[in-house]
TrEMBL record:
CDD domains for the chain: cytochrome_P450
InterPro entries to which the protein is assigned, alphabetical: Cyt_P450 (IPR001128), Cyt_P450_CS (IPR017972), Cyt_P450_E_grp-I (IPR002401), Cyt_P450_sf (IPR036396), Cytochrome_P450_monoxygenase (IPR050121)
Lineage: superkingdom: Eukaryota
Xref: Pfam families: p450
Protein name: Cytochrome P450
Family: Belongs to the cytochrome P450 family.
Residues binding heme, per UniProt: 303
Cofactor(s) required, per the database record: heme
PROSITE patterns (UniProt xref): CYTOCHROME_P450
Amino acid sequence: MFYKFQNRKFEIFGILLHGATAAEAFKEFTRRFGNIFQFWLGPSRLIIVGGTGDVQHIYTHRHIYEQGDAFVKKFGILIPNAIINIKGSTFKRHASLTMPLFRHTHELAQSSTSTVQRKRTSLIASLVCSLQQDEQAEIKKIEDKKKGLSRSELLDEMLFFLIVGSESVSSALSWFIYHMSKHPQVQQKIKAELMDGDDYKGPLSLDRLDSLVYLDAVINEVLRFTPISDGTFRTLTVDDRLPESGVQLYKGDQVYISIHNLAQDPQNWSIDPEIFYPERFLKGGKPLHPYAFIPFGSGHRQCIGQDLARFEFKVIAARLMQYVTFHDGGPQVNTGGQVQTITIMPKHIGVSITFD
Ligand code: HEM
């Protein structure tokens, strides 16, 4: 069935995903319907946007494209006051209290006993210090004048950071292990880079970590090939026309940007995106458009934990590569596939491990 939408035709379909993840389904739909189409998620209509010009426009016009209502519905039932679910001035208040910590990711590596220092290096300490002294007085103020977090806001933030902080990096590491088991030559290159120092199994200082550029390329390729988040939502605050596709959108419409599709679209890459090839992120192999590779989203609502996530990922991956080698457990158990929970994880992963 076709639906005339301004001067463009869209195929409308409501469909059950039959166990496929959104990433797998949208890849197939993009192949069939092109890089902009509508999708019904139950009663909600989503406009899936895949052209890099349109995607850039959405992320760079924060006053038109606000945090998506679908995102808010997804997490809002359990943790309505967590940063991902709030907008406007309330978001600004929460962001001003949580974001500074993530600018000091490297300091997390150093432990400290001083309260001032702990406020800078412990998210929990920093959040607890932001608890409102007089909640009743704060409730009466208009949002712009409020300071600190109420008890229920603090609880929701802690819960959200506990969930997102552990689930995200562990999913990404599962994909790392899966890809390593399938690509022994990549593992050998990481090990060769680690061996390039005096002490192969020695401590990982920040300088040493920074010098591991091939490992950075592998981490990027893991996040590109198998992103743990399939996409991001934005809701329009006013009518707007997308510049690349020319599609007219209206206030209240919900757009969905598929991180996975952008990372897999051959138009966005000079080297075949269907191949797992970390070297694409070394000199000259970058995506053809800056918005083709956005594993952490983009714009004013991009992931605030991305530096921490990359840091954790790199430290754990480097440590693993110092001590063990992963081998493919065979076609019965190591078949890959995807399963969607809060993040996208490998469905069937079975590897054997040798200690180096
Ligand atoms: C590999 C690890 C991770 C990936 C791939 C990832 C990815 C994402 C993505 C795609 C978004 C949505 C961005 C958007 O709408 O533009 C997001 C949001 C968010 N992430 Fe992450 N994330 C990771 C780890 C973390 C960690 C470790 C934390 C904190 C401990 C974190 C905290 C957040 C927060 C607070 C938001 C909501 C930001 C907002 O609504 O303004 N993430 N993340």
